[in-house]
Amino acid sequence: MNVFYKIFCREIHLGLKLVSPFLPYRAPRQTYYGELPALLQKAGASRVLLVTGKSVRAHGLCEPLLAALEAAGISTEIFDDVPANPTLSCVEAAVSLYREKGCDCVAAVGGGSPMDCAKGVCARVASPKKSLIKMKGALKVKGKVPLLFAVPTTAGSGSEATAAAVFTDENRHEKFAVFSFKLVPKYIVLDPALTVSLPPAATADTGMDALTHAVEAYIGLCTTADSRDYAETAASRVFDHLPAAYANGRDREARAHMQCAAEGAGEAFTISYVGYVHALAHALGGAYGLPHGRLCAVLLVPVLRAYGKNAQKKLARLAKECDFCEKDTPKKEAAELFIQKTEELCRTLGIPEKIQIEEKDIPALARRAAKEANPLYPVPKILDEKALAHILRAIKL
Predict the structure, then answer these.
(1) Closest to 213 in 3D by CA, of 159, 165, 287
(2) Where are the domains of the chain?
């Protein structure tokens, strides 16, 4: 990689670090079903577009919210056609229903996909003359967004606390992100009862997504005191409680801790960004339609090893915060221990070390990942397309 381009990237990262403490991020307010209708009525909302998936609805996970809204006389229109990775056409269909039914508020019930779709609806309502493609990147959502609240049924994406939403352009088979502080949900309901039916594999994938958010936010160059606290607490909770939630889905204490971990990790990376794990996962997800959390889990250790010495200091600190070693453990040893603990967790959760990738696709995948990450993501070590292709080959079956 050209040395001048690296300097340019680091100048961008320095600028981000300087402004990070002053970004207009607001954490969503946690509430409960009984209080929510009064909050909506106070905001003038009278007709809610509820965005969810067919499986979530079929399992009755929308019912507690629907019952609370109905009891308060708040009308609800349901859009339940969100796929595993929200597409542009899916968002447009939801926007059409929002307009057709005269909705004035948006709710998301489900995992990251319904929440991202709901954010896409809000962005399109706020900027009706702009396509989501034109809002790709940061701070391009203009106008007033509808009130948005979220009820997560998984513990991983953290989308209930973030300013980002990821969409799939089904025509180009590519994923892209829209980032705007206007897209942070105003209210969230964390109900662990909604996550007990999540299958073990999905529990593992979403939990590793939360860990990846925490780790990438923590080791980046744009952390703040708040984002470091969020990330440390989230990572510790994942290591302590994800194995229990995976082994026994009805363990409500473990499920509650994982919901808090996902929400905290979401707050961390909204402030401090992510890194090459996410850039590569987005490229692979767009090309092959694989679960985002599974891709993050497979990629996390190889990317951490690719960072090498550049991530050692912060990984060592994180290892100590997770009680993996004593406070006086040497930096190199502590950092390696964190990576080993992550490998052990993946094995416990049945996460494979490799996935099916076509060799012919690797150059384009590496190029897409580099384009997404550079120069915006404040990573510990700047990697070029060649280095990213090497990581992809390391996880290729």
Answers:
(1) 159
(2) 3-22+197-394, 32-195
8 A C-beta contact, residue 50 and residue 79:
yes
Residuewise pLDDT in 10s, the chain (397 residues):
789 999 999 999 999 999 988 888 999 999 999 999 999 999 999 999 999 999 999 999 999 999 999 999 999 999 999 998 899 999 999 999 999 999 999 999 999 999 999 999 999 999 999 999 999 988 899 999 999 999 999 999 999 999 999 999 998 888 899 999 999 999 999 999 999 999 999 999 999 999 999 999 999 999 999 999 999 999 999 999 999 999 999 999 999 999 999 999 999 999 999 999 999 999 999 899 899 999 999 999 999 999 999 999 999 999 999 999 999 999 999 999 999 999 999 999 999 999 999 999 999 999 999 999 999 999 999 999 999 999 999 999 9
Domain 3-22+197-394 and domain 32-195, same fold? Reply is no
- List, in sequence order, the alpha helices (H) in 349-384: 362-373
CA distance 340 to 334: 10
| CATH match of 32-195 with 2.40.110.10 | no
> With 0-12 CB in 10 A as exposed, 13-18 as middle and 19+ as buried, what is 323?
exposed
Q: If residue 154 lies in a helix (H) or strand (E), which one and from where to where?
A: none
Task: Name the CATH architecture for the domain at 3-22+197-394.
Answer: Up-down Bundle (1.20)
Residue 144 CB contacts under 8 Å (≥ 6 apart), including other chains: 126
17 and 221 in contact (C-beta within 8 Å)?
yes
Structure token digits, residue 353: 């070390």
Structural contact between residues 296 and 209, judged by C-beta atoms closer than 8 angstroms: yes
Contact 123, 98 (CB under 8 A): no
The tokens for 365 are 């995948």
389's tokens: 């292709």
SS3 113: helix
Rg, Å, the chain Cα set: 20
* Residue 339 CB partners (closer than 8 Å, separation 6+): 301, 304, 305, 315
Amino acid at 296: C
What is the spatial distance between Cα 210 and Cα 221, in angstroms, rounded to a whole number?
Answer: 19
Q: Any residues with CB less than 8 A from the CB of 99 and at least 6 apart, and which?
A: 125
